[in-house]
Amino acid sequence: MARLRGSGPPTDVGGVRDDAMSTFLQISFSGLATGAIFAIAAVGFALLWQTAGAINFAHGEFIALPAVIMLILGEQRPTLGLPDWVPVVGGTAVAGPLPEMGIIVAFVLTIPLAVLVLGYVFKVSLVDRLLTPGGDDIPLVIASLGLALLIREYLRVEFGARPEQFPSTFGTARWRPGGIPISADDVGVLAVCIAVILALQMFLRRTYTGRQMEATAQSPHTARLLGIPVDRMVFYTFAINAVLVTVAALLVAPTTHARWDGGLSLSLVAFTAAIIGGFNQVRGALVGGFVVGLLQNWSAYYLSSAYREAIPLLLLILVILWRPQGLFGVAEERRV
Amino acid sequence: MTKRMCWSKLPAVLVVGALAATACGGDDDTDASSGSGGGDEGAAECPDGDSVLMAMPYEANQPAGENWRLGVEMAVAEVNDDGGILGCQIEIDPQDTQGDPDVSRQVVADQAEDDPYVFLGTVFSASTIVNMVESQRAEIPMFVGAEAPSITDRDENGDDDFIYRTSFGVDTAADKFVRYMVDQGVGSVDLIYKNDEFGAGGREAYVAAFEEAGIDVGLDIQVQPDQTDQSAEVTQLAGGDADAIFVFMTEIETAAFLDEYQAQGLDKPLYGGDVLSAASTIALVQPGAADGTVTHAGLNASAPVFAEWKEAYAEFHPDADPPDHNSIKGYTAVYIVKEATERIGEFDNSQFADTLYCADLTVEDEPSLLLDVSYDGNGDIDRESYIVSVVDGVGEITETVPPLDNLDERGC
Amino acid sequence: MSATTSTTGVLEHRQDTIPERDRGHLSWPLAVAAVAATTLVVLLPLGHSQLAGIMWLWGVALVGVIGLNLWLPVESWNGIVIKWTSLAGAVAFLIVFPIGRTNATLIDLGVFVVFAIVCIGLNLTYGFAGKVSLAQAGFLGIGAYVSVLLDTGRDVAVAGFEATLPNLPFLLAIVVAGLTCMAFSVLIGFPALRVQGPWLAFVTLAFNLLVFLVLNNEVGLTEGSRGLRAIRSDLVVFDIDLFETRNYYYFCLVFLLAATVLVWWVVRSPWGRAFKALRDNPARAASLGVDIRTYTLLAFSIGAGLAGVAGALYARLIEYIEPRAFFIGQSFDFFLATVIGGLGTLVGPFIGVSFITVLTDRLRFTGDYYRVWFGLFVVVMMLVAPKGVAGSFDQLRSWLRDRRRVVPGAAPDAAPEVGPEVET
């Protein structure tokens, strides 16, 4: 007989299980940690929609892609392999296995790549062509659906259908103060997520460039009259989004794993969190993420696990109908 | 005036026609002479020139389907190097079903037009339940990796003589494992399962087996596909008072569950479907989180009997993940076809039922079967299986479960 | 995005400037050529021949038919003859083509036919009335489940209630499926009164997800993820045995033709004008006395009803339904098919659905990458033809017409009139 877990009756597991408050705190904290993941996934989506008017249904794939790239760069995963074209592009030197450089170095290397491909190329090749001022936004929605399919299937063919474990940036330490399990990863993701979103909010509100971007978002026409380099401001939006999805990949992938089909569910929570929180406020994504994470856990525990995903969706519908600026957004007239 | 815009698009209707026509043009070459039953001149006659065509519908976008394909490819390469089946080289027609039942049905129907000798696939039960209708219609044997009980249920399928499993149906597995659990003194279990076709199907089979064995089912909790935060569900489990917890989910959800279970410091025994102790799950969890889990495995690559095969596999697919049970299923499927064909003596796929039903296929006949296997009268199999437990992050065989040996109750 | 983004501009076409009465002379040789070319297009693929020469002939005939349609002014006698010939040819194609084909082709074509009905519905809701809906797969699912539950006489249990469902005749089950979807569509029709554009897209998306969750979780009603079988073996309608896939295909085709005629009729009726007024300028429509509430709900319910009917047909075509078939991915597919085909055109859904069914399937010869190519195709289509294939046809036609009109020296009309003018 192999080692089984303690086979005695589970009389006193931690000693705090009967405490309803402790249970509540436990699932609430877990909900917040998950909510932070939702928030960091949502913030880029909200930013693009708010400041460039671009609704990107490929947002989840934008997060899944850098996760895989980081894994290839940062850790030797023979099972991931390299696309056939890599040696062709980079010459024979790249053909051999890459050195193992650690996930943080890989993250730093991935950021410029992401800014180039998910920021610049995405903007120039798709958004600029499809999103004409005052025009219809549906062609871009359709194109992003196609793009999502393209990225997803490419990841599958190139890197396989199997999920890969992604190392946590914050280590695997765990504590159980008062019976509530807390992991270093949870705390780290929460902290980084809040810091990133608040910093972004500060940047948009307090810095000169940020104000210019805000002005561009509110009225490109007026902004241009005021001498703001509108096109460059829009590009900044895409660049920031590219950085945000890379950060999101770094924080999300330890939980969701690096895999080809992780994008759709990430997109869905991103839409939900962004809209519930109020997409015209970057910090709305934070609030929305927390609300969704908490609601899911509360409804799973106190109502029914089957409908844990349904409650945030109902809230989403209610919010759109009665408070389209989001629960915590500020009502203002915006025309992009 | 009003008609103008609508009807003026008609040319485009014809474009659609053009697409459909080019698309379906390939249907015409179904040549009656290539029928598999035509080989009465002798055993050496290959159905398709000097080769034999096998159709492989599989889930290219799922780990299960991908591993199935790798197993099949390896076996096919071996057989072909060895001179083929009855001197005929095997040709594989792999087609992606996207794990989607209605796509899989179209794929199988399309492949049936080329009159393949057999179908190898599919692995997903929901797909198989749908596409086996087409293999039955075309009267082509189909070797599946799917485990849902209903696939070989003759009442539900109108006496399908063309469906053969390559592993246990989950009901057979449940019978065997529940016996073991009773032996271990488990009197009651709390269930947690994934709310999809795989998890719900497994739960159903096991609940029936628990009931029969007199094990009480306490909590019955589901998690949603892709759900990585299971704290609420595990907290509910922590409040249960059963002897053990039974887990039936796929890799991602199982990994999330094990991590949360460890984080909350729970220590009831964990039993489950074979994913719980599979190498692909252990690869995703925190160190130590899977230790102590016990599962029943119809096929488990860590069994000593597969050791040699595993090395060959690693050599053949140097870039692939280590093989799992689906790789073994795919691999042995090819050899079951080979053995059956050699017993028939010619490529006559209408004789598969006569040859395989109630027959024993042994490793002495064909070493690459890896394990002895017996078919019952419905296309289900019986053979020995394993109890696997995870020790220090590695699945270890702790016990070998003998075959049920009840073929006479199962249509023989 | 402002909440009042409309699709103005998507579907504006030049007014045809040829007066109604002046239809010119009917050229008999031309008409005969058109009929001959259409006949070739329809009949040639029938043969069991792969001869390259014949396929070339077929290609030439097809180009001929398309060219004639593009070249001739649509309101001239010649244009009328040719477009009716082409229509008859297209219908004949769907009827004649499956003759002698095998089961697999019939199922492929059957899926095409069923999805075309769904997209025709979506085209009415979105293309003509301007209301985005990403819930079409949800309605397909509701229709499928309602029909299967009602014509198999099952015992169900939901939330403590138990009942034995009736065993309705198939035709009646189809009707009930359609009506149920129309009833549900009111649920998302009301949000459509308040929000537009992307907001509406997200509301309908959430609705579709909720439908999926209910189908997946209410095991007592739907068997959940195990799915429901819906074998056709006992299905006989008007003494026709629908178990035979061929018969069932034609059965579905009848519904497709009916749906096409229905939408064609709706679009030319006063309703259709109201829909387009709603799409192009809701405020103006309201001031002109269009009852916005009624027409918005109507647009949704017709689209959803068609999806429901299609769902009933789909269930019996595949003979098995499970919730994942009605997940939002399918809604995305329907949406992009409708847009790529060409919004607000009768033929658009046909073209679009051929892309999501026939094209994806026929890309398989490219191996593992076939879905990648399809994604790329969608992106490129949006870049080169954001109005869809049918929209591009119209642009091409007016370009050709402008060029020809310049030749006689007649001054072209002033700037094309753009406005909420109703045109069909």
Overview of this structure, please?
The complex is a heterotrimer of chains A (336), B (412) and C (424). By secondary structure, chain A is an all-alpha fold. Chain A is 66% helix and 1% strand. Chain A has twelve helices and two strands, in the order αααααββααααααα. Chain A has helices at 20-52, 59-74, 85-90, 103-130, 138-159, 184-206, 208-218, 220-225, 230-256, 263-277, 282-303, 310-322; strands spanning 174-175, 182-183. A two-stranded antiparallel ribbon of chain A has the order 1-2. In chain A, β1 (174-175) and β2 (182-183) form a beta hairpin. In chain A, 55% of the residues are buried. Mean pLDDT of chain A is 81; it is low at 1-17 and 87-97. By secondary structure, chain B is of the alpha/beta class. Chain B is globular and about 65 Å long. With 424 residues, chain C is mainly alpha-helical. Helix content of chain C is 66%, strand content 4%. Chain C has 16 helices and six strands. Chains in contact: A-B, A-C, B-C. At the B-C interface, α1, α2, α4, α5 and α8 of B face α1, α2, α3, α4 and α9 of C.
SSE topology sketch:
The complex is a heterotrimer of chains A (336), B (412) and C (424).
Chain A: H1 20-52, H2 59-74, H3 85-90, H4 103-130, H5 138-159, E1 174-175, E2 182-183, H6 184-206, H7 208-218, H8 220-225, H9 230-256, H10 263-277, H11 282-303, H12 310-322
Antiparallel strand pairs in A: 1-2
Helix pairs in contact in A: 1-6, 1-9, 1-10, 1-11, 2-4, 2-5, 2-9, 2-10, 4-9, 6-7, 6-11, 7-9, 10-11, 10-12
Chain B: H1 4-7, H2 10-24, E1 51-58, H3 63-81, E2 89-96, H4 101-112, E3 118-120, H5 125-138, E4 142-144, H6 154-157, E5 163-165, H7 170-183, E6 188-194, H8 197-213, E7 216-223, H9 231-238, E8 244-248, H10 251-263, E9 270-272, H11 279-282, E10 294-297, H12 307-316, H13 325-344, H14 352-356, E11 360-361, E12 373-375, E13 381-382, E14 385-391, E15 394-401
Parallel strand pairs in B: 1-2, 1-3, 3-4, 4-5, 6-7, 6-8, 8-9, 9-10
Antiparallel strand pairs in B: 10-14, 11-12, 12-13, 14-15
Helix pairs in contact in B: 3-13, 4-5, 7-8
Chain C: H1 28-43, H2 52-71, H3 77-96, H4 103-128, H5 136-150, E1 155-158, E2 161-164, H6 170-194, H7 197-217, H8 219-222, E3 228-229, E4 236-237, E5 240-241, H9 245-268, H10 270-280, H11 282-287, H12 292-318, E6 320-321, H13 328-341, H14 348-362, H15 370-384, H16 388-406
Antiparallel strand pairs in C: 1-2, 3-6, 4-5
Helix pairs in contact in C: 1-2, 1-3, 4-9, 4-12, 4-13, 4-14, 5-6, 5-7, 5-12, 6-12, 9-10, 9-12, 10-12, 13-14, 13-16
